[in-house]
Write a structure and sequence with these properties.
Length: 362
């Protein structure tokens, strides 16, 4: 189990180029209009057609049509109800598949990885975050065991752990091959996770396996490259394994009732809860705790039940309105609230702040 648990939201990957949830559709629309996603144009157009059709609901109700989380949830519920304006019920799964393609492609087009000659590096500030993890596990006195829980689909943190020889350990096979990998629990899936057709279980493609067969596009001496692992996921399993997988990477809606995904994700959720239950320090970075995320509220409430007293719960978020501070304060019990701190700092500054906390104990 872990002394220190990090919880990373979309804000943690912002500096790496990933859009926030509220900006995601605008960025995707710009990619489409500038013809940067020609091979996925059909999927992008289908999604925006469906979003346009949802305008009809505004005559009787309110729906946030600018937020990717809200749209993902709306499409999933439409599939359950068999009702989406402008589409036949049997077309709704195609809309959801197209939305997943849009998410995968947008992340692959916006997150850039530094390169030097033929070597691919880690986008900042994840490189510095990996150094912090090594410091905590080997240099801090006392040394700290660590784990990471994230809601992000992108592979920036995965790359940082892989390049540093720290795993990751996704909590499901196959493992990374590292002797002491750091647990990385991706509660909503990942660009490099496939869903097996035979068992319905998640099968991660470890980055070291991926790079044995593929070179990143643009890795030709330029200073940055893009990694298309999500787009190449099915191709990898078809060419190099006998595992049959679904067409799209395994990603699930952030705010939808995740009961449909219980079989594939329950092991990961359970392990995340176990680590929370024994954590002495919890650092929450770039996650705003939206009102609609009942899942995290329950995960935190039930997951933190355990014998270990919390020494600190620290939230790092640039929001200065007081809204994020109040939302987190509202889910903390008296013991945790006494240990609660909130800093209006971005990810890179949070890393320095956390290192100082543990350096002061040396």
């Amino acid at each position: 189990m872990s002394d220190v648990v990090f919880i990373l939201g979309a804000g943690a990957s912002k500096q790496s180029g990933a859009p926030l949830m509220g900006d995601f559709l605008d960025v995707a629309r710009h990619l489409l209009s500038t013809q940067k996603v020609k091979d996925k144009e059909e999927h992008f157009k289908r999604v925006f057609k469906a979003i346009g059709a949802l305008q009809a609901v505004h005559s009787k109700s309110q729906l946030d049509l600018t937020n990717i989380e809200s749209i993902f949830t709306a499409f999933e519920i439409s599939n359950v109800l068999g009702k989406l304006p402008g589409f036949d019920p049997n077309e709704i799964p195609e809309v959801i598949a197209s939305l997943k393609e849009l998410i995968v492609t947008t992340l692959e087009e916006t997150i850039t990885f530094p390169t030097r000659e033929t070597l691919i590096g880690v986008p900042e500030p994840y490189g510095e975050f990996a150094k912090l993890l090594k410091f905590l596990t080997s240099e801090a006195v006392p040394q700290q065991t660590t784990s990471i829980i994230t809601f992000n689909y992108d592979i920036a943190i995965d790359m940082a752990l892989c390049k540093s020889g720290l795993g990751p350990d996704y909590g499901i096979p196959p493992d990374s091959g590292d002797q002491e990998p750091i647990p990385l629990y991706k509660l909503h899936g990942s660009l490099n996770w496939a869903l097996r057709k035979d068992t319905g279980s998640v099968h991660p493609l470890q980055l070291n396996q991926y790079f044995r067969e593929y070179s990143a596009p643009g890795n030709d001496g330029s200073s940055t490259c893009k990694i298309k692992i999500g787009s190449q996921l099915k191709d990898y399993f078809t060419r190099y394994t006998d595992v049959k997988v679904e067409d799209e990477p395994f990603i699930v809606p952030p705010t939808w009732n995740k009961a449909d995904y219980h079989q594939a994700l329950s092991t990961i959720w359970s392990k995340a809860a176990q680590h929370l239950s024994e954590a002495k320090s919890i650092f929450i970075i770039g996650y705003s705790l939206p009102e609609t995320d009942a899942f995290f509220r329950l995960l935190y409430a039930l997951g933190t039940v355990g014998p270990s007293p919390l020494e600190r719960v620290v939230v790092y978020n640039p929001d200065k309105s007081g809204g994020v501070y109040e939302r987190f304060s509202g889910i903390l019990g008296p013991g945790a609230k006494a240990r609660y701190q909130y800093f209006t700092l971005p990810f890179e500054s949070a890393i320095l702040n956390i290192e100082k906390i543990f350096s002061s104990t040396v």
